[in-house]
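Homework help thread (please don't just give me the answer)

Our assignment gives two proteins as sequence + structure token strings and asks us to describe the second one. The first is just a warm-up. Here they are:
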Amino acid sequence: MGDKFVLIDGSSMLVTNYYGNLPKALLFEKDPEKKEKLYSLIMHNDKGQYTNAMYGMMRTVLKIIKEQQPTHMMFAFDTTRDTFRREKYPDYKGNRGDTPAPLKEQFEGMEEMLRAMGFVVMYDERYEADDIVGSVAARFEKEIPSFIITKDHDYLQLISDYTRVWLVQTKSETAEELQAKYGAEYGWSKDLVSLPDKAFEVTPTLCLKEYGVRPEQIPDLKGIQGDASDNIPGVKGVSSAAIPLLARYGTVEEIYRAIDECDGDKALKSLSASWKEELGITRSPMKALIEHRDEAFMSKDLAMIRKDYEFDFGLDDFRISFDKEKAKEQFEKYGFKSLLGSLQ
């Protein structure tokens, strides 16, 4: 077994475990005041600190270490929504509600726990977790095979010949369907390839086959389609035309170059007709593309993961040096008795 670097989107994993381990009564309650009254039902330790997300995430991390046997590991977290993207577009992620207090508390607890156990934990006030992961992967991927664990489709743009994304699906059935769909073609089976729970390994070829674009085109796709989860506008009403247009032109810039080369309405109509005939685009996106040019370029920029985040760690700093004594202290502090056995 050679070296293997696992990069974890800590925010995605913690949030997934928070909602996955919430009491049903709380999960379905809409009234904010009633919700708060139910907080006492959330798993907590003897000091009253909430632990449901941390416990679930820690269990997941231990399972990944045992099954994947990575030699190197890191965790990246989001700390604020007021990053450089919000400076560019104040409504970025503006559709998201406040983080519930019991989850907010566990972000700090989780980061502290992982650091105490010897893992590298990274976050920044100006950059998001995906920018940090993108920057770390870009620096070391040619030295070590890298695997990113996340639920977030934005990360697909980081896939390369050296980096894979283990994209976590909401349901295990979805991951199994994807494995079945591509397994025969790529010689995969559960006996040969061990993947984290609910995850599907996306390669450059599979990204194109399953999502319709190459990894590097993900920002272009979001430039046109937008991304409702991040409140990125895109070009309204053009979503179905995005993939065929990108298949022909490659980037948002090249789509607009083709539009700009049209001299007058007649040429625009002719281009629109060729899209319909050759690309199978039934409803012309021309008017919307012209009207929302600025939004297209801004949306692509917002969706693009940065790789220029500066950090001082060398590859060896990410080598796993799991401190079992510290882990034991942390598990006892938070009441994770069932996890103590995994430290033997």
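The one we have to describe:
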Amino acid sequence: MNKIYFTFLIVLLITACKSSIEDAKESNSLAKYEPEEGKCLLFVGQEMEAIGGLEKYNDGYLDHFKTPAGFTMYVKIRPGDEEFGFTYTGLDGIFSSDDWGDSPSHLALQIADPDYKNMALAIGLEMVNHEKAIASGDRDTFVDMLGEWIQSLGDRPVFLRIGYEFSGSWNHYDREAYIAAYQRIKDRYDEQGIDNVAYVWQSHGSDEPLELLESWYPGDAYVDWCGYSFFSRFDEANMIEFARSKNKPVFIAEATPTISTETTRINGKTKNTDLNIKSQADEAWEKWFIPFFNTIEENQDVVKAISYINCFWKSHPMWVDNPTFQGVDARLHVNQEIADKWKSKINNKRYIHSSPTLYKDLSK
């Protein structure tokens, strides 16, 4: 073999190997605040009563279990809309105690409380009826105020779920306006140098073919995490497969035990699932909790965060007539057997809890 030709082959081979290694590194790089494979951030939500740890709200998750890595709350940009006797003014749920039917929310109060120290924050940002106004810039005042507040949190990691459950019929988002609104929010925050945010694109988690997800996708540059809700029809979710195709981690951003009936697909009705009642709690563990943990543990390469909703659903006006949640009490601490099973699962080293080094660890 000609020496020049041999040298050329060697150089070509080295170049190809180097390129493959660089491509592998790129494909294996972690997203914003994504833990390493085999690790999963544990969040709990979704209002002060459910989470606890406060002077007035002291019988929630934080009062009975080890402090999780983060907590989930909601913020509304829906000025002028009315719901369950509450009129939205814009940025509801941050600076004052606001109750739109799901018991009070007050993020600033929680952030200031020492029990919430060293916890990441997941924000469900609702913009129902206002996605077009946000996309056009008519709600920039509220968008910018939210961004300034997030930035004021310093190094606390924030997972921002813009227009969560975007394809759910109950939200009735306009698809093109939703995508434009999502992109506008991220673009503005990037321009303002807000860098403590991971952007989460969350579907409703049932009856979602891959083609549907693709049609709502804002684009790789706008999505740090893919998310979905894990409720009664979890076996119809395709977000894990979709996320793998995009090389994105998955946040199961809403999860609470709900069990399908023969009519759930038609009318949303689920079985009564009250963890206070032994027979219902036992069924919930077999038919919801076990599949939930199996989903996490069988997909450790992508499922990197979960948020359990520790809610007394059926006691809140918002859910009294809702066929999915009207018979549900998902508070883990009301049933010692369920609480013990939960602890045995989440005390596994794969689940990340609060720690003094959490923010630094997630920012590496």
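TA reply:
I won't write it for you, but here's a hint about the kind of observation we're looking for: The domain at 42-362 is CATH 3.20.20.80 (TIM Barrel).
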